[in-house]
Design brief:
It holds the Pfam family EF-hand_7. InterPro entries: Ca-bind, EF-hand-dom_pair, EF_Hand_1_Ca_BS, EF_hand_dom. This is EF-hand domain-containing protein. With 370 residues, this protein is α+β, with helices and mostly antiparallel strands. The chain has three domains: 152 residues, no CATH class; 77 residues, Recoverin, domain 1, CATH 1.10.238.10; 92 residues, EF-hand (Recoverin, domain 1, Orthogonal Bundle). The protein is 48% helix and 10% strand. It has 15 helices and eleven strands.
């Protein structure tokens, strides 16, 4: 089984899984039930340490090539969100980008994040600054020195007993989390903590939940969780990701549902968040045309595009529909969009699939208000 580049603050107890088991017989992995949130010393917590730079010429060359490819994609992304065509993103243009990244921030938090990203203080987001937002995710505010550890139930009982006896002193903070298995929303919940415990940021907690739900062989993820998985594993080849998932799932007692028709498919078909963002940028542009420019409801658009009235959209009907909405799109980007909408992979788009992608209650409310 290949190793994947999970965030270094995500750990698994040796008692939950031992490598020697693979040589001593069949062992089935149990669902992840309890996670320990552990800070050895709160005085040593640090936010967003810079990544370690490569040390060999070969790695330097690989990083340089990857950086150049990223810059090309980021410039293309800026063009998609750049409504006034000035080559940068004003804060108003950048807000939809955060939403498309799957980031759940309040309006004030978005403003603060954009101000932090605007290194030169000119009120716009350029190529390098947007790279920080998408690739480095500096706004996640993940504190190094805080760890999430998968425990066995017996270990959790021991940790809980130690907490009750005051065994964790000084600057050590510990919490036990539960409720991860089978959860698609809401995530794990804190069961018990030591005194003066300070919880992790929303993003770090979500990083924990998305990581261990993936390791737990779950298939359905919200946009924010999927964005975090793509961010973590952006340096891992697609083949390694799928092999890891299939190998782990083979050690579980559960039905082997195919991932192609689930939200997890993005992790095995898209290399980085940048690849997903192109499709999401196009979707945002289509929504703008539907709701803001033409003032249409989603059912009206469906009836307009579904020319033969068979309640299915073919490639040809969707292509002509986008032309009618005056949305310019390249053939390769259109194919990616079609694959994104067609979740059951039957070659056509149903109304439910169409509505799931383009329905936007917030934008639709502006039609009602106007």
């Amino acid at each position: 089984t290949p190793k994947l580049s999970f965030h270094h603050t995500m750990l698994v107890s040796q008692n939950y899984y031992r490598r020697q088991w693979s040589l001593s017989g069949n062992h089935r992995l149990k669902n992840i039930c309890v996670i320990m949130e552990w800070v050895p010393d709160k005085e040593h917590l640090k936010t967003n340490e810079p990544p370690t730079l490569p040390t060999t010429r070969q790695k330097d060359a690989e990083v340089k090539a990857a950086r150049q490819a990223e810059e090309v994609k980021i410039k293309q992304l800026i063009e998609m969100y750049d409504n006034d065509g000035n080559g940068t993103l004003e804060f108003g243009e950048a807000r939809p980008l955060f939403k498309d990244l799957g980031v759940t921030l309040t309006v004030d938090e978005v403003e603060n994040a954009l101000e932090d990203l605007d290194h030169d203080g000119d009120g716009t987001i350029g190529t390098d600054e947007l790279r920080d937002a998408i690739v480095n995710r500096n706004y996640y505010q993940i504190k190094h020195g805080r760890y999430f550890v998968v425990l066995t139930l017996r270990e959790a009982e021991g940790v809980r007993a130690a907490m009750h006896h005051g065994a964790f002193g000084g600057g050590t903070m510990v919490a036990l989390r539960y409720g991860l298995a089978g959860s698609t929303t809401g995530g794990s919940r804190i069961l018990e903590t030591t005194s003066q415990f300070e919880p992790a940021s929303h993003f770090h907690s979500e990083l924990c939940d998305s990581t261990f739900r993936f390791c737990d062989s779950e298939l359905e993820f919200e946009d924010e969780s999927m964005s975090m998985l793509l961010w973590q594993l952006q340096s891992d080849p697609l083949a390694n990701r799928s092999q890891f998932f299939n190998d782990i799932r083979a050690c579980r007692r559960r039905s082997m549902k195919e991932w192609e028709g689930t939200s997890l498919r993005l992790l095995f078909t898209e290399e980085t968040s940048l690849d997903v963002m192109e499709t999401k940028a196009i979707i945002s542009r289509i929504k703008t045309q539907i709701y803001m420019h033409y003032g249409l409801y989603i059912l009206d658009v469906w009836r307009l595009i579904d020319k033969n009235g068979d309640n299915q959209l073919s490639h040809h009907e969707l292509w002509n529909g986008l032309k009618a909405l005056k949305v310019k799109i390249k053939k390769s980007a259109f194919d990616d969009l079609m694959a994104h909408i067609d979740t059951d992979c039957d070659g056509d788009i149903s109304y439910n699939e169409f509505r799931a992608v383009f329905q936007d209650d917030e934008l639709e409310s502006t039609i009602c208000n106007n």
